[in-house]
Amino acid sequence: MYEGKIIKFYRERAGLTQEELGRDICSATHISKIELGQTHFSKDITELLAKRLNISMHEEIRTFKAIQQKLEKWHESIIMQQEEEADSLAAELEESELIYISDYNNLYKLLKARFLLSKENDPGTLKIIKKLQNQKLSPYESGLLYHIWGIYYIRKQEYLKAINALKSINSHTYQNTDYYYHLAISYYFNNTDLLAYSYAEKALHYFKSSNNFLRVIDTETLLLVIQNKHVQSNFTARLKKYESLIKSCELCHTVTRKAIVLHNLANDYFRMEDYQLAATLFKDAMKIKKVKSKKYLNSLEGYIQACIKGNLLTKDELVKLSKEGLAVSEELKELLYSYLFTLLLYKLQEKQEQYYSYLEEQALPFFRNYGHVYSVNVYEKELFFYYDKTNQLDKAVQLAHHMLSNQH
C-alpha cells in the first residue's frame, strides 16, 4: 500500500524512468503496477528497489504511517494554543516530503492554513483555502475548511460571512467543537446575544472537558461581556468576575488575554458613565498590546471616546491621538478603524457638514455591508437625530423604517 507511493516519489525525485529503476530487478510494467498498487510484490523486490533509490523502506514506511498521528497532534496544539509545540510540529511536517503523496495532503494544507491564521498571516491562509475550495475533500476536511473560513472572516470582522461559513459545518462529520466558540463570537458581534450565549456555553463545556485553560479564559470573558450587556447585575459581583479572569490570565502568563479583559472592563465602566476609570483601563490595555495591531486600535478608539465624554484631554491632544490611530489603521489596511478615526477627526475638528456627509455616504454603508452591527446601531441613531434636528424629515423617516426592520 505505502511501498508503491514511496517508490514512485523517490524514483521521480531521482529522475529515473521505470525501466531504469527496474533494470536487472523487474520489468517496467511490474514497477508501474507496484506504484499504482495493482499487483502483489515480494519484499525482496521492494528492498532491491529501495537500495537502488538509496532509501530504507522500513524507515520510509514508519515515517509515512506517523503522518496522521503527527497531524492530529499538530491540530490539537493549534486548538490548545500551545505555540511552541505547534511551531515545532509545523517545522517537522514542512520537512516531511512524503506528506504530499499521502492521503493526508489536503488535511495538511488545511491545518497549515489554520496555523498561519494563528500567526496572523491572513494572505497565506487565503491563498491555501482558495485553492482547496474546489478540491474533492472528505466530510471532515470540508468541515475544517468551513471552520477556517469562519475564523478568517472573524479576523476580517465580517461577521455575517463568518456565521454563514460556520453554520455550513456538519457537526456529525466534523466534531471539533471549538468552532462553537467562533460561532459565539460571530453571533455576539452580530448582536444576536441569545445564540452567542448558547454557543459560548457549549464551547466552555468542550474547553473544560479538554483542560484547555487558555480557551476557558476566552470563553468566560465572552460570556461575561454578553451578560453585562443585558443583565443589570450587581457591579460588585461583575467586578469579582473580572478580577478572577485577570488573576487567571496572570497565572497562565497570557498578557494578551489580560489586555482583552481590561478592555472589556473599561467598556463596562464606560456604559456606567465612569469615563475617568474607563479611560484609565483602556490605557492599561493599550500598554500591553502591540501598537501596530487591530487590538491596539480598538482600545485606542475606546480611550479617545472616554476622554471626549469625560472631557479628560484637550482637543489638540485628542486630534493628535486620532491622527495617530488613522495612520496606523491605514498602514495596516484596517478599514473599520480608518472609518472610525476619520469620523472622530471630523467631529473633533467640528467639521459637521463633512462629518455627516462622510457618515451617510461612506462609513454607514461600510458598517452595514460588513456586518459591524455595533457601529451600525450607534451611528444610525446619531444620523437619525441629525436628520430630525435639520428638518430632513424624509431621510429621518426612511432611516427609522430601516432601523425598525433590522430589529425584527
Question: Explain this structure to me?
Answer:
By secondary structure, this protein is an all-alpha fold. The protein has 22 helices and no strands. The longest helix is centred in the first third of the chain and has 24 residues, at 57-80. It is elongated, with a radius of gyration of 28 Å. The termini are far apart. The mean pLDDT is 91.
- Residue fraction in strands: under 5%
What is the oligomer described by this structure?
A: single chain
Number of helices: 22
> What proportion of the residues is helical, as a percent range?
over 70%
Query: Which of globular, elongated, flat, extended, rod-shaped describes the shape?
Result: elongated
Instruction: Give helix and strand order, one letter per element, not per position.
Output: HHHHHHHHHHHHHHHHHHHHHH
Q: If you average the pLDDT, what whole number results?
A: 91
- The structure class reads mainly alpha
Task: Offer a concise description of the structure.
With about 400 residues, the chain is mostly helical.
Features:
single chain, 408 residues, mainly alpha, 434 Repressor (Amino-terminal Domain), 77% helix, elongated, TPR_rpt, TPR-like_helical_dom_sf, TPR repeat
Secondary-structure blueprint:
Blueprint (H helix, E strand, L loop, with lengths): L1 H13 L3 H5 L5 H9 L6 H10 L4 H24 L2 H13 L9 H14 L3 H11 L6 H17 L3 H8 L12 H11 L3 H17 L3 H18 L4 H17 L3 H17 L3 H14 L5 H17 L4 H18 L2 H14 L3 H18 L3 H17 L3 H13 L3
Helix pairs in contact: 1-3, 5-6, 5-7, 7-8, 7-9, 8-9, 9-10, 9-11, 10-11, 11-12, 12-13, 13-14, 13-15, 14-15, 15-16, 15-17, 16-17, 17-18, 18-19, 19-20, 20-21, 21-22
